[in-house]
TrEMBL record:
This is Glucose 1-dehydrogenase. Its EC number is 1.1.1.47. PROSITE patterns: ADH_SHORT. Keywords: Oxidoreductase. Belongs to the short-chain dehydrogenases/reductases (SDR) family. Pfam families: adh_short_C2 (PF13561). PANTHER family: BLR0893 PROTEIN (PTHR24321:SF11), DEHYDROGENASES, SHORT CHAIN (PTHR24321). GO terms for molecular function: glucose 1-dehydrogenase [NAD(P)+] activity. It comes from the Bacteria. It is an enzyme of class 1 (oxidoreductase).
Length: 254
Protein backbone atom coordinates (compact mmCIF):
# COMPACT_ATOMS: atom_id res chain seq x y z
CA UNK A 1 0.00 0.00 0.00
CA UNK A 2 1.28 3.48 -0.90
CA UNK A 3 2.34 5.56 2.09
CA UNK A 4 0.25 8.38 3.57
CA UNK A 5 3.28 9.93 5.30
CA UNK A 6 3.13 13.72 4.83
CA UNK A 7 -0.50 13.58 3.70
CA UNK A 8 -3.57 14.99 5.40
CA UNK A 9 -7.29 14.79 4.86
CA UNK A 10 -10.75 14.70 6.35
CA UNK A 11 -13.52 12.23 7.07
CA UNK A 12 -17.07 13.54 7.62
CA UNK A 13 -19.35 11.68 10.01
CA UNK A 14 -16.21 10.34 11.68
CA UNK A 15 -17.73 10.32 15.16
CA UNK A 16 -19.34 6.92 14.67
CA UNK A 17 -19.54 3.75 12.62
CA UNK A 18 -17.58 3.46 9.40
CA UNK A 19 -16.51 7.12 9.46
CA UNK A 20 -14.67 6.47 12.73
CA UNK A 21 -13.11 3.30 11.35
CA UNK A 22 -12.06 5.19 8.22
CA UNK A 23 -10.43 8.02 10.17
CA UNK A 24 -8.55 5.43 12.25
CA UNK A 25 -7.40 3.57 9.13
CA UNK A 26 -6.03 6.70 7.42
CA UNK A 27 -4.20 7.66 10.62
CA UNK A 28 -2.78 4.16 10.89
CA UNK A 29 -1.56 4.48 7.29
CA UNK A 30 0.41 7.60 8.33
CA UNK A 31 -1.93 10.47 7.43
CA UNK A 32 -2.98 13.38 9.62
CA UNK A 33 -6.77 13.30 9.86
CA UNK A 34 -9.41 15.93 10.51
CA UNK A 35 -12.38 14.24 12.16
CA UNK A 36 -15.59 16.11 11.24
CA UNK A 37 -19.02 15.49 12.75
CA UNK A 38 -22.06 17.24 14.23
CA UNK A 39 -21.65 14.92 17.20
CA UNK A 40 -18.90 16.57 19.27
CA UNK A 41 -18.62 13.74 21.81
CA UNK A 42 -18.32 11.04 19.15
CA UNK A 43 -15.84 13.09 17.14
CA UNK A 44 -13.63 13.77 20.14
CA UNK A 45 -13.71 10.07 21.05
CA UNK A 46 -12.46 9.22 17.56
CA UNK A 47 -9.61 11.71 17.92
CA UNK A 48 -8.70 10.18 21.29
CA UNK A 49 -8.65 6.69 19.75
CA UNK A 50 -6.36 7.87 16.95
CA UNK A 51 -3.98 9.60 19.36
CA UNK A 52 -3.91 6.57 21.69
CA UNK A 53 -2.80 4.52 18.69
CA UNK A 54 0.01 7.02 18.00
CA UNK A 55 -1.70 8.84 15.11
CA UNK A 56 -2.32 12.53 14.36
CA UNK A 57 -5.86 13.93 14.38
CA UNK A 58 -7.95 16.95 15.32
CA UNK A 59 -11.73 17.35 15.65
CA UNK A 60 -13.80 19.98 13.85
CA UNK A 61 -17.54 20.33 14.51
CA UNK A 62 -19.27 20.51 11.13
CA UNK A 63 -22.81 20.12 9.84
CA UNK A 64 -22.21 19.09 6.23
CA UNK A 65 -25.55 20.61 5.16
CA UNK A 66 -24.31 24.11 6.09
CA UNK A 67 -22.04 25.74 3.49
CA UNK A 68 -20.22 27.95 6.02
CA UNK A 69 -19.40 24.89 8.17
CA UNK A 70 -17.97 23.02 5.20
CA UNK A 71 -15.94 26.03 4.07
CA UNK A 72 -14.51 26.38 7.61
CA UNK A 73 -13.72 22.67 7.70
CA UNK A 74 -11.60 22.75 4.55
CA UNK A 75 -9.88 25.93 5.77
CA UNK A 76 -9.08 24.17 9.07
CA UNK A 77 -7.47 21.18 7.33
CA UNK A 78 -5.28 23.47 5.23
CA UNK A 79 -4.32 25.81 8.07
CA UNK A 80 -3.55 22.89 10.41
CA UNK A 81 -1.78 20.51 8.03
CA UNK A 82 -1.03 22.57 4.90
CA UNK A 83 -2.73 20.30 2.40
CA UNK A 84 -5.96 18.41 1.65
CA UNK A 85 -4.65 15.17 0.15
CA UNK A 86 -7.85 13.14 0.57
CA UNK A 87 -11.45 13.48 1.71
CA UNK A 88 -14.08 10.89 2.58
CA UNK A 89 -17.62 12.26 2.42
CA UNK A 90 -19.27 9.75 4.71
CA UNK A 91 -21.78 11.69 6.87
CA UNK A 92 -25.41 10.75 6.26
CA UNK A 93 -28.68 10.16 8.08
CA UNK A 94 -31.57 7.73 7.77
CA UNK A 95 -34.64 9.35 9.32
CA UNK A 96 -37.54 7.42 7.79
CA UNK A 97 -36.76 3.86 8.98
CA UNK A 98 -39.98 1.87 9.12
CA UNK A 99 -42.07 4.42 7.20
CA UNK A 100 -43.69 3.75 3.83
CA UNK A 101 -43.24 6.59 1.32
CA UNK A 102 -46.81 7.76 1.89
CA UNK A 103 -46.04 8.41 5.58
CA UNK A 104 -42.77 10.33 5.20
CA UNK A 105 -43.12 13.99 6.18
CA UNK A 106 -41.83 16.86 4.09
CA UNK A 107 -39.54 17.84 6.99
CA UNK A 108 -37.94 14.37 7.04
CA UNK A 109 -37.50 14.46 3.25
CA UNK A 110 -35.89 17.91 3.40
CA UNK A 111 -33.47 17.05 6.23
CA UNK A 112 -32.45 13.72 4.76
CA UNK A 113 -31.72 15.25 1.36
CA UNK A 114 -29.97 18.24 2.97
CA UNK A 115 -27.47 16.00 4.77
CA UNK A 116 -27.09 13.10 2.33
CA UNK A 117 -27.12 14.99 -0.98
CA UNK A 118 -26.52 18.69 -0.38
CA UNK A 119 -23.88 17.74 2.20
CA UNK A 120 -21.93 15.71 -0.36
CA UNK A 121 -22.41 18.49 -2.94
CA UNK A 122 -21.07 21.19 -0.59
CA UNK A 123 -18.12 19.04 0.48
CA UNK A 124 -17.25 18.19 -3.13
CA UNK A 125 -17.32 21.87 -4.11
CA UNK A 126 -14.92 22.95 -1.39
CA UNK A 127 -12.67 19.90 -1.65
CA UNK A 128 -12.33 20.10 -5.44
CA UNK A 129 -11.52 23.83 -5.27
CA UNK A 130 -8.72 23.18 -2.75
CA UNK A 131 -7.38 20.10 -4.55
CA UNK A 132 -7.42 21.96 -7.87
CA UNK A 133 -5.17 24.63 -6.30
CA UNK A 134 -2.80 21.84 -5.25
CA UNK A 135 -3.13 20.03 -8.61
CA UNK A 136 -3.71 16.76 -6.74
CA UNK A 137 -6.15 15.00 -4.43
CA UNK A 138 -8.53 12.09 -4.08
CA UNK A 139 -12.10 11.96 -2.82
CA UNK A 140 -14.38 9.07 -1.85
CA UNK A 141 -18.12 9.51 -1.38
CA UNK A 142 -19.92 6.90 0.70
CA UNK A 143 -22.94 5.83 -1.33
CA UNK A 144 -24.79 2.54 -0.67
CA UNK A 145 -26.19 -0.61 -2.22
CA UNK A 146 -29.35 1.56 -2.12
CA UNK A 147 -27.67 3.52 -4.94
CA UNK A 148 -28.78 0.56 -7.10
CA UNK A 149 -31.53 -1.30 -5.24
CA UNK A 150 -34.63 -0.26 -3.30
CA UNK A 151 -35.21 -1.44 0.27
CA UNK A 152 -38.56 -1.55 2.04
CA UNK A 153 -39.39 1.76 3.76
CA UNK A 154 -36.24 3.57 2.67
CA UNK A 155 -37.56 5.55 -0.29
CA UNK A 156 -35.97 8.93 0.45
CA UNK A 157 -32.70 7.38 1.65
CA UNK A 158 -32.59 5.31 -1.56
CA UNK A 159 -33.20 8.45 -3.64
CA UNK A 160 -30.44 10.26 -1.73
CA UNK A 161 -27.93 7.48 -2.39
CA UNK A 162 -28.80 7.38 -6.10
CA UNK A 163 -27.99 11.10 -6.09
CA UNK A 164 -24.63 10.49 -4.40
CA UNK A 165 -23.59 8.23 -7.28
CA UNK A 166 -24.73 10.84 -9.80
CA UNK A 167 -22.70 13.53 -8.05
CA UNK A 168 -19.68 11.20 -7.85
CA UNK A 169 -19.66 10.36 -11.55
CA UNK A 170 -20.27 13.90 -12.78
CA UNK A 171 -17.69 15.37 -10.42
CA UNK A 172 -15.18 12.67 -11.44
CA UNK A 173 -15.59 13.54 -15.12
CA UNK A 174 -15.24 17.27 -14.45
CA UNK A 175 -12.30 17.02 -12.04
CA UNK A 176 -9.90 14.51 -13.62
CA UNK A 177 -8.16 17.25 -15.62
CA UNK A 178 -7.58 19.16 -12.35
CA UNK A 179 -5.61 16.24 -10.91
CA UNK A 180 -8.50 15.18 -8.65
CA UNK A 181 -9.74 11.57 -8.57
CA UNK A 182 -13.26 10.98 -7.27
CA UNK A 183 -14.84 7.59 -6.56
CA UNK A 184 -17.60 6.08 -4.42
CA UNK A 185 -17.97 3.09 -2.13
CA UNK A 186 -21.30 1.27 -1.97
CA UNK A 187 -21.40 -0.48 1.40
CA UNK A 188 -23.81 -3.33 1.99
CA UNK A 189 -25.14 -4.01 5.49
CA UNK A 190 -22.37 -2.94 7.87
CA UNK A 191 -22.52 -3.28 11.68
CA UNK A 192 -23.00 0.35 12.81
CA UNK A 193 -25.58 2.36 14.79
CA UNK A 194 -27.31 3.16 11.47
CA UNK A 195 -27.81 -0.55 10.73
CA UNK A 196 -29.11 -1.09 14.28
CA UNK A 197 -31.83 1.47 13.52
CA UNK A 198 -33.02 -0.61 10.54
CA UNK A 199 -32.76 -3.91 12.45
CA UNK A 200 -34.71 -2.60 15.44
CA UNK A 201 -37.95 -2.24 13.45
CA UNK A 202 -40.89 -4.46 14.43
CA UNK A 203 -40.95 -7.78 12.54
CA UNK A 204 -37.33 -7.52 11.35
CA UNK A 205 -35.38 -10.75 11.99
CA UNK A 206 -31.60 -10.25 12.06
CA UNK A 207 -30.79 -13.69 10.59
CA UNK A 208 -33.21 -13.12 7.69
CA UNK A 209 -31.53 -9.81 6.85
CA UNK A 210 -28.08 -11.42 6.96
CA UNK A 211 -29.23 -14.20 4.61
CA UNK A 212 -30.78 -11.62 2.25
CA UNK A 213 -27.92 -9.09 2.32
CA UNK A 214 -24.77 -11.21 2.35
CA UNK A 215 -23.19 -14.25 0.69
CA UNK A 216 -20.95 -15.11 3.65
CA UNK A 217 -23.36 -15.32 6.57
CA UNK A 218 -22.53 -12.10 8.39
CA UNK A 219 -22.82 -8.34 8.23
CA UNK A 220 -19.80 -6.30 7.15
CA UNK A 221 -17.46 -4.57 9.59
CA UNK A 222 -16.69 -0.81 9.47
CA UNK A 223 -12.98 -1.54 8.98
CA UNK A 224 -13.80 -3.38 5.73
CA UNK A 225 -15.17 -0.12 4.32
CA UNK A 226 -12.26 1.85 5.78
CA UNK A 227 -9.69 -0.28 3.97
CA UNK A 228 -11.46 0.29 0.65
CA UNK A 229 -11.46 4.06 1.24
CA UNK A 230 -7.75 4.08 2.12
CA UNK A 231 -6.99 2.18 -1.09
CA UNK A 232 -9.21 4.35 -3.32
CA UNK A 233 -7.56 7.55 -2.05
CA UNK A 234 -4.03 6.14 -2.42
CA UNK A 235 -1.70 6.30 -5.39
CA UNK A 236 -2.31 2.54 -5.81
CA UNK A 237 -5.71 3.50 -7.25
CA UNK A 238 -4.18 6.04 -9.66
CA UNK A 239 -6.14 4.79 -12.72
CA UNK A 240 -9.51 4.52 -10.92
CA UNK A 241 -11.96 7.37 -11.65
CA UNK A 242 -15.71 7.70 -11.15
CA UNK A 243 -15.97 4.11 -9.91
CA UNK A 244 -18.59 2.79 -7.49
CA UNK A 245 -16.92 0.03 -5.47
CA UNK A 246 -19.39 -2.37 -3.87
CA UNK A 247 -18.17 -3.63 -0.49
CA UNK A 248 -21.33 -5.52 0.22
CA UNK A 249 -20.77 -9.21 0.97
CA UNK A 250 -21.86 -9.92 -2.62
CA UNK A 251 -25.37 -8.46 -2.23
CA UNK A 252 -25.34 -6.68 -5.60
CA UNK A 253 -24.05 -9.78 -7.40
CA UNK A 254 -27.44 -11.50 -7.13
N1 LIG B 1 -24.44 0.90 8.09
C1 LIG B 1 -24.82 0.46 6.92
O1 LIG B 1 -25.27 -0.69 6.80
C2 LIG B 1 -24.68 1.32 5.69
C3 LIG B 1 -24.92 0.73 4.44
C4 LIG B 1 -24.74 1.49 3.30
C5 LIG B 1 -24.30 2.81 3.39
N2 LIG B 1 -24.10 3.37 4.61
C6 LIG B 1 -23.58 4.74 4.62
O2 LIG B 1 -22.35 4.75 5.32
C7 LIG B 1 -22.12 6.03 5.88
C8 LIG B 1 -21.78 5.89 7.35
O3 LIG B 1 -22.89 5.31 8.02
P1 LIG B 1 -22.80 4.57 9.41
O4 LIG B 1 -23.56 3.32 9.26
O5 LIG B 1 -21.40 4.55 9.89
O6 LIG B 1 -23.72 5.59 10.26
P2 LIG B 1 -23.61 6.19 11.73
O7 LIG B 1 -24.99 6.68 12.01
O8 LIG B 1 -22.97 5.23 12.65
O9 LIG B 1 -22.61 7.42 11.54
C9 LIG B 1 -22.97 8.56 10.82
C10 LIG B 1 -22.22 9.75 11.40
O10 LIG B 1 -22.57 10.91 10.63
C11 LIG B 1 -22.78 11.98 11.51
N3 LIG B 1 -23.66 12.99 10.91
C12 LIG B 1 -24.99 12.93 10.75
N4 LIG B 1 -25.44 14.06 10.20
C13 LIG B 1 -24.36 14.86 10.02
C14 LIG B 1 -24.18 16.16 9.49
N5 LIG B 1 -25.24 16.89 9.07
N6 LIG B 1 -22.93 16.66 9.43
C15 LIG B 1 -21.87 15.95 9.88
N7 LIG B 1 -21.98 14.72 10.40
C16 LIG B 1 -23.21 14.18 10.46
C17 LIG B 1 -23.41 11.35 12.75
O11 LIG B 1 -23.30 12.20 13.89
C18 LIG B 1 -22.62 10.07 12.86
O12 LIG B 1 -21.47 10.25 13.65
C19 LIG B 1 -23.37 6.83 5.58
O13 LIG B 1 -23.17 7.57 4.39
C20 LIG B 1 -24.42 5.77 5.35
O14 LIG B 1 -25.49 6.24 4.57
C21 LIG B 1 -24.30 2.67 5.77
Amino acid sequence: MSSYQGKAGLVTGAGSGMGRATALAFAQAGAAVVVADVNVKGGEETVALIREAGGRAIFRACDVSVAADVEALIAAVVSEFGVLSFAVNNAAVELEAGLPLTEVSEAVYDRLMAVNVKGVFLCLQQEIRQMALQGAGAIVNIASVNSYRPQLHQSVYTASKHAVLGLTRNAAVESASLGVRINAICPGAIETPMLDLALNQPGVVREDIIAYMSLNGRFGRPDEIAKAAVWLCSDDASFTYGHALAVDGGYLAR
